[in-house]
Amino acid sequence: MKKLITIFAILVSTSAYGQSVEEFLKSGIDKHNKNDFKAAIIDYTKVIELDKENKYAYFNRGNCEFALNNYEASIKDLNKTIEIDPKFAEAYYNRANVFVKMEKYTEALTNLDKAIEIAPTTPNALSLRGQIRAQSGNKTGACEDFMTAKNNGDKLATKYLTIFCGDIKGYSESLLLVLPESEDWKIGDDQENAEQHVIDFVHKNETVDKWTELCNMTKVKIATSVPITVPMNYLYEQAKKNAPEAKLTLIEKDENAEFPWIIFTIESPKFNNDDTPESQLWYVVLGKQALYNNFRAIKEATIPNELKEKWAAFFKTAKVVYK
């Protein structure tokens, strides 16, 4: 609600009248930016006295009134803004915020509908409408809003999806990772229980008992916020139980990403009960609702650098999605 419509060329007129409007509006914006709302209102009022159709003065003054908790005055100014420009999407969005504060949720939804109709990507409008819908029992509509908001780049939408939509069929989290068609993969095994979902992929004409290259995708159905290196170290410790000579190599990680991830290799020259080597390149992603452990493996003591680069590039195409 403190957002301003900054005008770089408010009026091109060089008359004293035009200059006064421009000066007062710029002065109001400057005070507004400094949170001196009362002084800004005085300047915006002077603009309106000189130009009764200046929608930006009404809009900004309405925002200042909102910041001062003068909700009725804010509504009045935003009403005038919309009267002057019925296509002013942010005026509808800001008026919705005022109605939320006044606990008039029906009116808020009507304004959000209009803002989204005019400008579907109006910042935060979808997330706000989703929250109101969720609180009023319309969870399906809420999750549709959160999904669209997320696709529009709203960083808070993922949080709302987790809070409101994790228990709704069709809106659960998953990892989208598409295997290249040119490599002729097929599902060799697919098992799921309450704790995890495990899928093994093998090449055409191979099986999970006899393969040259294997791709595994595992979804561990538990929300966790541990450092991304924790699952890596756990998987390595598990590997050493059957392959004491296994070697761990960290390749790349991003702990500050929205969904932290890590890429590493575990290369085993042999196993306790089997001299056949196996080397794996892992890609682990920490989602909001689950942990995603994925690897590709070959029956070699080490993974050639060219293959490491190819597999790492493939895993980086993965995306955490909600559907």
Structure overview:
The protein is an alpha+beta fold and 323 residues long. The protein folds into 2 domains: 16-165, Tetratricopeptide repeat domain (Serine Threonine Protein Phosphatase 5, Tetratricopeptide repeat), CATH 1.25.40; 173-322, Protein Transport Mog1p, Chain A (3-Layer(aba) Sandwich). Helices cover 45% and strands 20% of the residues. The chain is built from 11 helices and 9 strands. It has helices spanning 16-33, 37-50, 55-67, 71-84, 89-101, 105-118, 125-135, 139-151, 157-165, 229-242, 305-315, and strands at 173-176, 185-192, 196-203, 213-220, 247-254, 261-268, 278-286, 291-298, 319-322. A 7-stranded antiparallel β-sheet has the order 2-3-4-8-7-6-5, sandwiched between helices. A hairpin with a 4-residue loop joins strand 7 and strand 8 (291-298). The longest helix is centred in the N-terminal third of the chain and has 18 residues, at 16-33. The two termini are 31 Å apart.
Secondary-structure blueprint:
Elements: H1 16-33, H2 37-50, H3 55-67, H4 71-84, H5 89-101, H6 105-118, H7 125-135, H8 139-151, H9 157-165, E1 173-176, E2 185-192, E3 196-203, E4 213-220, H10 229-242, E5 247-254, E6 261-268, E7 278-286, E8 291-298, H11 305-315, E9 319-322
Antiparallel strand pairs: 1-9, 2-3, 3-4, 4-8, 5-6, 6-7, 7-8
Helix pairs in contact: 1-2, 2-3, 3-4, 4-5, 5-6, 6-7, 7-8, 8-9
